[in-house]
Amino acid sequence: MQITDKITTIKGIGPKKASALERLKIRTLGDLLFYYPREYQDRRQIQTIKSLKDGDTASIRARIVLLVPGGFRGKRTLQVLVTDDTGELSVVFFKADYLIKQLEKNQEYELYGKVTERAGRLQMVHPEIERKSGLTEQGKILPLYPLTEGISQKDLRKWIKESFSLVKELPELLPEAMRLRNRLCSLSYAIENIHFPEDPQKMREAKFRLVFDEFLELQLGLLSMKERVFGAAEGISFSKTKKMCEFTQTLPFSLTGAQARVLAEVETDMESKRIMNRLIQGDVGSGKTALAAAAAYKAIKSGFQAVMMAPTEILAGQHYETLTSLFSPLGVKVGCLTGSLAAKEKKALLLDIQEKRIDFLVGTHALIQPQVTFKKLGLVITDEQHRFGVRQRSLLQQKGNNPDVLVMTATPIPRTLAVILYADLDISVVDELPPGRKPVITKAVTSSKREDAYTFVREEIAKGRQAYVVAPLIEESTEIEAKSAKQLFEELSGHFPGVRVCLLHGTMKQTEKDHVMELFAKGQADILVSTVVIEVGINVPNASIMVIENAERFGLASLHQLRGRVGRGAEQSYCFLVTEGKTEQSKERIKILCETNDGFLIAEKDLLLRGPGEFFGFRQHGLPELKLADPSKHLSILEIARKEAFFVLETDPDLENEENAELKNRMQMLFEDVEGLSI
Ligand code: ADP
Ligand code: MG
What we know:
Mean pLDDT: 87
Helix content: 25-40%
Largest sheet: 7 strands, parallel
Number of strands: 22
Bound molecules: adenosine-5'-diphosphate, magnesium ion
Distance between the termini: 37 Å
CATH topology of the largest domain: Rossmann fold
CATH architecture of the largest domain: 3-Layer(aba) Sandwich
Low-confidence stretches: 675-679
């Protein structure tokens, strides 16, 4: 047997089990060994029946005194009475055909399950039950794995045990010295004890080691990427005499303190020979667009082109308009490239870009296409970075010769984590909103109070305000019980005579979308009914009300982004979250939003509620998945791993030393895709 052998080499795994295992991404014996338990059952303590209480989960050892088969809705059931020397307990099994054949009176068994009280008597319903023998799983700490249909805990435990003969052959990933320095157990010890620990201490040692490995791999990957792209190569030094303030003086407002500070950081980066690779984090409405424009100004006045990528056509279109009006008085040519551009216009635009008749190009993913070539690209900006992956960012970068890079995001992550996770980026934070902004007042509304909310909307509209109404779906669906944008559009159009309602959703033609956005932006429509397409970036300061239907269907970050569409003008703004909030988690989410407008605080809570995997969207970013490691829980391990990663790259940047050979293999496997693209 070998680590790379298919799982079907294990006796008992045929095509059917193999395809179920495929759903868990287990294909080889190695995958099986690295498939970690989600939690454990501690069965070391055998309890006496007398000591059991309602609600306990317990192991007992007892003899069967009575077996009573029965029937329930066509299923065979089995009532069993067991005893140890201290008392009797009744045990119930449903769907018990197989057990009826197996269990025998007067034999001793080991049972594990939850104790419940029924009619004053304690019982166990469907416990795990096994004949007492040396081979039983009692008296141990047992792993509980995430399962899929057709695969049981027992299956996984058995197969993993069988693959254990390979553990000794697992190549040790870490150099000996690194293990000693950090008192890390060996990889084989860790694998054995993450699955079947003899005691909790061994399990913790195993987990520490495996969490360390995951963080080390991630840090090494990110840092070496940065090194490769930004370290060795020389970047552009933009002009020290073309200052950003020439541009910011032309803005209709003066910069906030935070904006000014961040711009100074960006300006220093741009003037230096190092390649700038900076992330600007700032809550919705903190004024990031003006910063991007100022950076572009400096690049353009220094003789280069700049490009800015946005995640949606609507946002790209809006940026195009804003930037055109800011730049045309300054003699800077702005262009816009999106997927829906007609072939003829596209051809002309591509030529203009190539010959540098366009200085500043805005667009969507369409910018990444190979036909897009620049004459002299000096600055690459991505807006709403959380919507893009590492991959897309680096593809755009490759269109220039070591251009400077600025990425902007309104999905803040706690700063300590950001520093570590975005190891390849420097970070600036715009932690101040432009003056005069009033926090948006947010209220949760149950459907019985929905009418009141809409009455309020109508009153505000009568005062000249505008409103967004967001639905989770485009069309009505028979499967999902949620409001659709089309349905809401019809409802509201009938409901509010004299109020101008318009509709926007992702599958509309681009020209229709543009038309609708223009109507709304110019104040020629009062209510914009929409799907989440308006989530990012849309800026209509006169819109002061946001109604979100079926708010429970959106994540915290999305809700915060949506809410960020209002509160952009001088008027008091409101956000209504229409929801029944059925689960605890969704109630908690809604509550957080009602209590705070602070994006950083919301991000922290979101991280706690959702867990890191989903929060960071690792896969989406092309990064290896974290299985055991949780940056919010294991911050101290993360810091150790980060130090070690720096140490490795300082002493052996290309991982050429013998002691780093295994690490090198592993990194190549994990970062194949990501690295290939960023070099
Ligand atoms: P975001 O950071 O969400 O991208 P925007 O760049 O869209 O925010 O800015 C939101 C609004 O605030 C825009 O209307 C912009 O013109 C305005 N704005 C930006 N900076 C300032 C400022 N310093 N003073 C007043 N208004 C500002
Ligand atoms: Mg923005």
